Amino acid sequence: MNEEKEVLIVGNGDDICSEKTIKNFENIVAADGGFNNIPEGVKTLCVIGDFDSIKKKDIPKKIKKIKFPKKKDFTDIELAISYSIKNGYKNIFITGISGSRKDHFFTSLMLLKKYERYNIHLLTSKEEIFILKPLTIYEFLDMKDKRVSFFSLTLKSERIISKGLEYEYRNGNLRFDLPIGVSNRIMKDKVLFTFEKGRILCFLEI
């Protein structure tokens, strides 16, 4: 994580990152019932949502509460994203995005695309999910033997170059309708990845 202002949004899903990871964040926002996923004693900036999965009386008085109507055009996660952006957070991490409701997981992927100009990462119990942008050199450090998958979000992502993967890209392409980037493996302690055109969704095992 870099030195820019960052925040962790905790949703109500049961597939969340580790307790250790949550405790590494100084700034935490709960999306509605996501407050129940925050370990006891961890400071929470605010709880935001329509409070359909948690009651306001169950939240300590010292924690800020921002309530929205049940009938609204945005999910609680998106409300928390908007709150984080308005409060100047440059790096936004989100966990608790899904459980039995896989449509909630897909919605979170769509939010990555909607807010792609911001640095947003989804954290599950096993993966970190984020969008890669062209003309940027990405480094994956100390991830040897971890699995990594790449999917083009555009019709084609072009001129991909990698160093340190089991299946290297040497000026290669990925297509939206041909998901051949699944289940690659990191072979070195430092991996470099870049491309010139398109958008790529990355699933990185953690």
UniProtKB/TrEMBL annotation:
UniProtKB keywords: ATP-binding, Kinase, Nucleotide-binding, Transferase
Database matches in SUPFAM superfamilies: Thiamin pyrophosphokinase, catalytic domain, Thiamin pyrophosphokinase, substrate-binding domain
GO biological process: thiamine diphosphate biosynthetic process; thiamine metabolic process
A Pfam cross-reference name: TPK_catalytic
Example GO molecular function: ATP binding
Stretches assigned to the Thiamin pyrophosphokinase thiamin-binding domain: 144-199
EC identifiers of the protein: 2.7.6.2
Matching InterPro entries: Thi_PPkinase (IPR006282), Thiamin_PyroPKinase_B1-bd (IPR007373), TPK (IPR053149), TPK_B1-bd_sf (IPR036371), TPK_catalytic (IPR007371), TPK_catalytic_sf (IPR036759)
Domain Thiamin pyrophosphokinase catalytic: start-end pairs: 20-121
Stated name of the protein: Thiamine diphosphokinase
Protein species of origin: candidate division TA06 bacterium 34_109
